C-alpha cells in the first residue's frame, strides 16, 4: 500500500513536469480509494494503475465469462514484460469468487500500431486507447503464462495465488511494424458456475516514447476527452454461447445467433444449443431451442415482420458425421426447414421450426432476398453436404416463401452453368423487379415473372461467391444518385482453373496459404451498357470479408482471412492443406471503413483493430447505436478447442469514429413508413443542423459466410424550412426497399441518432399500397406554390389513394387526420 502511494506520487511529479495542468481530480480516480486493495498489474517499467473492479453477470448457462484486457505501448524492441496480479485477490467482491472452483487463464498477445491519440479511459470495462490507423499483428507465439502453460493450453490457477503472466516480446522489424505497442487480452474463465460471477477488469497503458505512463494521467483526473473513448475501437463485450455462424438484429435490444448443430457446451433441453438470443445491453444470452440443423442456412425478414431462416443440412452427430434424424445432437434434417421467429424483448419468443413447414427441395447454402410483395425468394443451394457442388448435388433452382403460383421449384440456369461456384449466389432485388444474381464469374438480371435473364459482363478480378467468399454490398440508394443501384464486390479468391475448386471432397490444390484477392469492382446493373468498374483495392487481400452498412452512408468491412478460403476439412493431408481444419489462415485483424463518396484512392480507412481471428463461420451485424457486433469463427467440423483456429465464442463490438459524439434525437421518426404518401417533419435544434440532416432506413440483414442477405440502405428525400426537416416517405416503388422491418436513423452532419426499429409497408405479406411520391414543402418547386402546397398535396394523395382503392393508405398516411386538424409533424 505504501509502495502504491509512493508510486502514485512519483508519477504525479513526473507528470507535472511533462504535461499541462489538468482539471481537478475525478473523485473516483483521484486517490487510492475503494480499489486500492485490489490486485493490480505490474507493467513494464513499473507503472501501475489501481484497477477498476467491475461486477459482471454471466448468463446462467454460460460456462465462460471473459473480460480482462491489458494494453500498453512499448518500444520497438520490447524487453520481457511481466504482468501480474500482484497481490492476492482480496477485495470484498472477490471473496465470493475465491470460494469458487479454479480460475482458468488464457491470454493472447497482439501488437498495435499507430500513435496513441488520447489516454485510456479508466473505470470502464474497456481500457482501450484511441489509435489512428491501428494495425494489429498477432504474436501468440511470444506469450507465456507463468507458471506452466502457454496461451493455447489454458492452465489452472487458484484465485488465492498470485497470478503472473510473462509476455516475452519478439523483436519486431521496424520496417514492417512502423509503430510499437501491444495488447494482451486475458480471459478469465470459471467452469461449472451458474450464478453471477464477479470479474475484475484492469487497465494499463504505458507510452514508452515519452516515458510517461498514460494511465497515471487518470490519477490526476481529467475532464472531457478521457471518459468516453470507445470511438474507433473494438472490444470484447460478451460470449455468444454458440458459435455465431449466422446472426441478425431482431429488435432494438436483441440479436439472434444461430450455429450449425454441434457440441457446444451450452445446453438447451438436454442437448447442445445452436441458437441463442443475445441481449445487446447486458450481453446476456438466452439459449433457444431450434429443432432442425441450421448448418449454412439462409435468412431474411418477410413483409409481416417475421424472420425466416431456411435450409440447412442433415442431422449430425459427433464431428459433423451424419446421424439418423432425431439422433445425434438432437437435430432434425434442416435441408428443407422453414423456421420462423417473431423477435421479442420479453424473452418469451421461440423459433417455430415445425416439420410440417418444408421447402420443396433441400437447400444447403441458399440465398434469401426479400421481394416487393413481402415474399422471400430462396435461391440455389446444394442437396447435400460437401465443399462445393458437382452437377449431381447442386440445386440450380429457386422457390418462394410463401409459395407463389405453381408452388414448385423453378430452374435457374445461371446456377447450373456456374457449378462448382454456385452456392450462396449474391442476389439483390433491382428497381425493375428483376433480381441481380452473381455466381461463378457470371452476373445476370433474372426476371422471375418471365423466367428470363439478361446477361451482364463477367466479373473481373476473382470469383466472389462461397468458398472464394468476397464481400458484397449494395451501395446506399438516394435521390442524389437517382436510386440507381450499384453493387460493390471486394476480395475473394482466384484459384486459376475452375477445376481447382474440386468437388464435394475439397479443393484439388493447396489453398490455405494462397493470398486472397485485393480487387474491388462495382457495377450498376440497371444502367444502360452496365459494366464493371474497378474501385479502390483493399489494402490487403481478403476472403470472407463482410460488409456492414453504417447509417452515415459508409460501409464497414471486417472479418475474414488474408490467405485461403472458406470451408474446412478434418483430414490434415487433404490436397487443400487445411491449417488445423481450416482452409483459411492468417486472419485479417483490421476492420476497414469504405466511403463510397470519397474520391478514388481515398475510400478505405482502417478503423480499430482486434486480436481475435474471425475465420470461416463468423458474422457481424449493425446495432441501433451504430456500433457493430462481431462474433463467430469455427472453421471446424464440430466444437473444437484443440486446434489452431478454435471454436470462438467471444463477442466483440466495433465502435465507429463518431461513436462518442453527441447524437441527434430520433424522437420525430414515425414507427411506420409507406411507399409514397404523406411525409412528416422533424424539428432540429437549429437551422444549421437541419441543413446537414437526413433520414435513412437501413435493413441490417442476415449475416453469414461474409454475406449479409437483404442488407440495404435508402436515404429519404428531404427539404428544409428553418430548423424543420421535411421528410418524404419511401419512393413509390417497393422494389427499391422491400417491405418489412428496418432501422430508421436521423443523421446530422454524419452522426446518426439511435436507430429506431420501424415497419416499412403495411406489415402484411402481399402487394403493398403505393401512393403518389411525397410532395415536400420547402423544395424548389414548392417555393413557387407556397400557400397552395398543402391542398395540392392532399388532392394528389386523395387522387392516388382513390385510384388504388386503399382505405388503409389513407389511414396510414395520416391524411384523414390532416383534413381535420393542423399537425406540425405531418405534412
Ligand atoms: Cu458454411
TrEMBL record:
Residues 1-18 form the signal peptide. Residues 273-658 form the Glyoxal oxidase N-terminal domain. Residues 663-760 form the Galactose oxidase-like Early set domain. Coiled coil: none annotated. Pfam families: Glyoxal_oxid_N, GO-like_E_set. It comes from the Eukaryota. Keywords: Signal. InterPro entries: Gal_Oxase/kelch_b-propeller (IPR011043), Gal_Oxidase_central_sf (IPR037293), Glyoxal_oxidase_N (IPR009880), GO-like_E_set (IPR015202), Ig-like_fold (IPR013783), Ig_E-set (IPR014756). This is Glyoxaloxidase 2.
Amino acid at each position: 500500500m505504501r509502495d502504491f502511494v509512493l508510486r502514485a506520487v512519483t508519477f504525479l511529479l513526473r507528470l507535472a513536469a511533462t504535461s499541462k495542468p489538468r482539471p481537478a481530480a475525478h473523485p473516483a480516480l483521484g486517490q487510492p480509494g475503494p480499489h486500492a486493495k485490489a490486485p493490480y498489474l505490474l507493467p513494464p517499467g513499473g507503472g501501475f494503475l489501481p484497477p477498476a473492479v467491475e461486477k459482471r453477470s454471466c448468463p446462467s448457462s454460460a460456462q465462460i465469462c471473459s473480460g480482462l484486457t491489458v494494453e500498453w505501448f512499448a518500444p520497438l524492441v520490447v524487453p520481457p514484460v511481466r504482468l501480474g496480479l500482484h497481490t492476492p485477490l482480496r477485495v470484498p467482491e472477490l471473496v465470493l469468487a475465491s470460494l469458487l472452483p479454479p480460475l482458468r487463464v488464457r491470454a493472447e498477445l497482439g501488437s498495435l500500431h499507430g500513435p496513441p491519440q488520447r489516454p485510456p479511459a479508466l473505470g470502464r470495462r474497456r481500457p482501450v486507447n484511441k489509435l489512428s490507423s491501428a494495425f494489429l499483428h498477432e504474436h501468440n507465439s511470444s506469450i507465456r503464462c507463468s507458471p506452466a502453460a502457454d496461451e493455447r493450453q489454458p492452465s489452472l490457477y487458484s484465485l488465492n495465488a498470485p497470478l503472473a503472466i510473462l509476455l516475452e516480446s519478439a523483436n519486431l522489424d521496424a520496417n514492417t511494424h512502423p509503430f510499437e505497442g501491444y495488447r494482451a487480452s486475458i480471459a478469465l474463465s470459471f467452469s461449472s458456475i451458474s450464478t453471477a460471477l464477479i470479474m475484475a477488469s484492469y487497465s494499463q497503458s504505458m507510452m514508452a516514447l515519452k516515458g510517461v505512463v498514460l494511465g497515471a494521467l487518470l490519477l490526476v483526473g481529467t475532464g472531457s476527452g478521457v471518459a468516453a473513448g470507445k470511438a474507433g475501437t473494438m472490444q470484447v463485450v460478451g460470449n455468444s454461447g454458440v458459435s455465431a455462424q449466422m446472426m441478425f438484429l431482431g429488435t432494438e435490444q436483441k440479436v439472434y445467433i444461430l450455429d450449425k448443430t454441434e457440441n457446444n457446451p451450452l445446453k438447451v433441453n438436454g442437448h447442445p444449443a445452436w441458437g441463442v438470443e443475445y441481449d445487446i445491453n447486458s450481453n446476456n444470452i438466452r439459449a433457444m431451442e431450434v429443432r432442425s440443423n441450421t448448418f449454412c442456412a439462409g435468412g431474411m425478414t418477410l413483409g409481416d415482420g417475421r424472420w425466416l431462416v431456411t435450409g440447412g443440412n442433415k442431422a449430425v452427430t459427433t464431428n459433423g458425421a451424419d446421424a439418423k434424424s432425431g439422433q445425434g445432437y438432437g437435430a432434425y434434417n434442416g435441408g428443407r426447414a422453414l423456421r420462423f421467429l417473431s423477435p421479442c424483448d420479453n424473452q418469451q419468443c421461440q423459433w417455430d421450426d415445425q416439420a410440417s413447414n418444408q421447402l420443396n427441395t433441400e437447400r444447403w447454402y441458399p440465398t434469401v432476398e426479400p421481394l416487393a410483395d413481402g415474399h422471400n425468394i430462396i435461391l440455389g443451394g446444394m442437396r447435400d453436404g460437401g465443399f462445393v457442388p458437382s452437377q449431381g448435388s447442386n440445386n440450380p433452382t429457386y422457390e418462394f416463401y410463401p409459395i407463389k403460383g405453381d408452388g414448385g421449384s423453378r430452374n435457374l440456369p445461371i446456377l447450373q452453368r456456374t457449378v462448382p461456384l454456385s452456392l450462396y449466389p449474391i442476389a439483390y432485388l433491382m428497381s425493375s423487379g428483376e433480381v441481380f444474381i452473381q455466381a461463378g464469374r457470371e452476373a445476370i438480371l433474372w426476371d422471375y415473372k418471365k423466367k428470363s435473364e439478361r446477361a451482364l459482363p463477367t466479373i473481373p478480378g476473382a470469383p466472389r461467391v462461397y468458398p472464394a467468399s468476397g464481400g458484397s454490398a449494395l451501395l446506399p440508394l438516394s435521390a442524389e444518385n437517382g436510386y440507381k443501384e450499384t453493387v460493390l464486390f471486394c476480395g475473394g479468391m482466384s484459384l486459376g482453373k475452375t477445376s481447382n475448386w474440386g468437388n464435394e471432397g475439397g479443393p484439388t490444390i493447396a489453398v490455405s496459404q494462397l493470398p486472397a484477392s485485393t480487387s474491388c469492382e462495382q457495377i450498376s446493373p440497371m444502367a444502360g451498357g452496365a459494366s464493371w468498374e474497378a474501385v479502390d483495392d483493399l489494402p490487403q487481400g481478403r476472403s470472407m470479408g463482410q460488409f456492414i452498412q453504417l447509417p452515415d452512408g459508409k460501409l464497414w468491412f471486417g472479418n475474414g482471412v488474408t490467405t485461403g478460403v472458406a470451408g474446412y476439412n478434418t483430414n490434415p493431408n487433404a490436397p487443400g492443406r487445411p491449417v488445423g481444419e481450416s482452409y483459411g489462415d492468417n486472419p485479417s485483424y483490421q476492420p476497414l471503413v469504405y466511403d463510397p463518396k470519397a474520391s478514388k484512392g481515398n475510400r478505405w480507412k482502417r478503423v480499430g483493430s482486434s486480436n481475435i481471428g474471425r475465420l470461416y463461420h463468423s458474422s457481424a451485424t449493425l446495432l441501433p447505436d451504430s456500433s457493430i457486433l462481431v462474433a463467430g469463427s469455427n472453421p471446424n467440423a464440430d466444437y473444437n478447442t484443440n486446434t489452431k483456429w478454435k471454436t470462438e465464442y467471444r463477442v466483440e463490438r466495433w465502435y465507429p469514429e463518431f461513436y462518442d459524439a453527441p447524437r441527434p434525437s430520433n424522437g420525430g421518426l414515425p414507427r411506420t413508413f409507406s411507399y409514397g404518401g404523406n411525409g412528416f417533419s422533424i424539428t432540429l435544434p437549429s437551422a444549421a443542423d437541419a441543413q446537414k440532416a437526413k433520414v435513412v432506413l437501413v435493413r441490417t440483414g442476415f449475416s453469414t459466410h461474409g454475406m449479409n442477405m437483404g442488407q440495404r440502405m435508402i436515404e429519404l428525400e428531404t427539404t428544409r424550412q428553418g430548423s424543420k426537416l421535411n421528410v418524404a416517405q419511401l419512393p413509390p416503388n417497393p422494389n427499391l426497399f422491400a417491405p418489412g422491418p428496418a432501422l430508421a436513423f436521423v443523421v446530422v452532419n454524419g452522426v446518426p441518432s439511435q436507430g429506431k426499429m420501424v415497419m416499412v409497408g403495411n406489415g402484411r405479406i402481399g402487394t403493398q399500397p403505393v401512393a403518389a411520391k411525397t410532395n415536400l414543402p420547402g423544395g424548389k418547386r414548392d417555393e413557387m406554390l407556397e400557400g397552395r402546397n398543402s391542398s395540392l398535396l392532399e388532392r394528389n394523395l386523395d387522387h392516388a389513394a382513390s385510384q388504388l382503392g386503399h382505405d388503409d393508405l389513407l389511414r396510414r398516411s395520416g391524411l384523414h387526420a390532416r383534413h381535420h386538424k393542423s399537425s406540425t409533424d405531418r405534412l
